[in-house]
Amino acid sequence: xxxxxxxxxxxxxxxxxxxxxxxxxxxxxxxxxxxxxxxxxxxxxxxxxxxxxxxxxxxxxxxxxxxxxxxxxxxxxxxxxxxxxxxxxxxxxxxxxxxxxxxxxxxxxxxxxxxxxxxxxxxxxxxxxxxxxxxxxxxxxxxxxxxxxxxxxxxxxxxxxxxxxxxxxxxxxxxxxxxxxxxxxxxxxxxxxxxxxxxxxxxxxxxxxxxxxxxxxxxxxxxxxxxxxxxxxxxxxxxxxxxxxxxxxxxxxxxxxxxxxxxxxxxxxxxxxxxxxxxxxxxxxxxxxxxxxxxxxxxxxxxxxxxxxxxxxxxxxxxxxxxxxxxxxxxxxxxxxxxxxxxxxxxxxxxxxxxxxxxxxxxxxxxxxxxxxxxxxxxxxxxxxxxxxxxxxxxxxxxxxxxxxxxxxxxxxxxxxxxxxxxxxxxxxxxxxxxxxxxxxxxxxxxxxxxxxxxxxxxxxxxxxxxxxxxxxxxxxxxxxxxxxxxxxxxxxxxxxxxxxxxxxxxxxxxxxx
Amino acid sequence: xxxxxxxxxxxxxxxxxxxxxxxxxxxxxxxxxxxxxxxxxxxxxxxxxxxxxxxxxxxxxxxxxxxxxxxxxxxxxxxxxxxxxxxxxxxxxxxxxxxxxxxxxxxxxxxxxxxxxxxxxxxxxxxxxxxxxxxxxxxxxxxxxxxxxxxxxxxxxxxxxxxxxxxxxxxxxxxxxxxxxxxxxxxxxxxxxxxxxxxxxxxxxxxxxxxxxxxxxxxxxxxxxxxxxxxxxxxxxxxxxxxxxxxxxxxxxxxxxxxxxxxxxxxxxxxxxxxxxxxxxxxxxxxxxxxxxxxxxxxxxxxxxxxxxxxxxxxxxxxxxxxxxxx
Lengths: 514, 327
Prior knowledge:
A: 22 strands
């Protein structure tokens, strides 16, 4: 393990028409931990993937110990001692811990047979690094029998078993418990003394302050800051993440009457990803769900729609409900709008009429009363201000924004009281978004209660009455009125509040009382 | 989430189920045909087992690697046509060995073509190998339009030998299993399981996934060629439809042996047990004097059960989990 320095200079990466990284730079040298942070879509994962050779950059250069390098594959990066620990695990479920860690590098006997005894012993030695922090981990355990935290440990050990000179820990702590995180940080400190270079990608501000020496901040695909941890604060980093962006103009919505009754009351909701979420939602309120990707927002919506098993209590219009199937939720006038239009929201080859009426055909008897169905759909299309060639045109003929309107429209025909939106504006152009917001505003005025998850902070700031920020499966902040600002939103999504200590304390949650 | 020893044993040796079915089938067969374990019937059974065991072993490798090979039956027919037309009944040993070598090369070439299309051009395995099966089958018909040709006595008698009262094909099956167990100790087998189990994870780990998948088709082609050789030794003549049933039978044997059709799991030991089970079931059907088409029905039911099996197990587990979480 010699000294190493890696420097990424002005990297750009486009996926089709989308620019994931416009000017990404990162420097890290031996014995140093650099935290890489940024909001959703700021390009941190892309930058990490470029450094490890998973994707190739469109332009910019990588310098290893001062000389330019290009990596055609993860294998090429690994050859020079760069490896990554991913959050989306790179383990083979059917193979054992030992087989996974040494895959492709197994110790051999006479160059032909795998030396299983040696492989077992080497694996045990690695597992001992985390001794006492796990339950069932042993070299012969198949991966698919392990809980998520232990899989993550295996993933970390697999990375470290390569004795890399530079390791990227990409959200490697996300599924670890606090004891395991502490052990990992002890190990990281040790690796630093062995001159390893470490890039640490995390959404937990407190961890960044515990372990990093420097922090590199990305915003909209651009590196906007490189701060020494000793000389910075959580506020400063959050500011860097959001700098220059003003709070968007709010769509004027009439305030909710204080005495409006609670329409939805969620108490101690738990799923695989959620740990005790409680909140209430008043009739006609538009509540936003914020936070970084994958903090349990989708799980929350799925649980409310009866699509996944959950624990806890849900009250709808004063009555305790327990949906076990989406159909039960639909019958209680709950509607769910998925984010992935093409796969979850639309029958692409079928007509707009069919798409609009899909959940409602039962209303039209046998044989189907097509005239009434068409008239119904026509009315809905007008209400939605749908721009289309006609009801008989296939869904593929619609633009992104209009397609999303159809996805919502099919539920409007069922007169929903509670509308669940799962990041619905992803990949929708600006003009269409505007129309979509107006639609939501109209629905809200008509008394529809809306729970709106968005990965776009602008929408949460510009549209919602209140925003719950989720972090690691719990509500880290509830923001409304003057507190609903961009910096509060971002710091809450990193698990720390501006008012809280800069060194982060992600217990600063302000849970609502039901 | 602790796993028991038994669970691990089943996970690593998914052929336990096939073993149980085989024992039951043998008991029933023995009941219908009391002379099952005598030398003659043992020999005739193993003569039938061997070609399918060979081709199904190759099929197992492809399926573990995440693919499927529907062209193996046609490759067998092609090899049969080559051997039947190119070996004269008075051929010398050298001539015979040369022709066998050429036949094996033909099998390898067929596998290379399949592998190039699937691994490098990323074509669908099912469609590709279905299409190439017509190429290889057509080639066989061109070489041998009608049943004809006869192999030298020396070859066909070798296939019927029973040294130490054990049939010659049984030795070959033993050899096949030893070869598999040896392969299982190599790094190559690890990369094959990894590529079939989760290709993108394997790629990120630095496994040459494309190369590994390619190689599985080449091996399958070679094994089909050897199976064609065994089949031709058994029948002693060429026939342009001889391999037709082998494709489906090989897949059924693999599935029966506990190898998952979606890849990444299973093994040749199970497949060999599956081959024997299939053969015994065939015996039972013929001795029970029921119409032959029941064999096709049994094949179909085995595949359906194997495809539905994991889904059903998951469904039951999920329902149980939901209940636990909800009540």
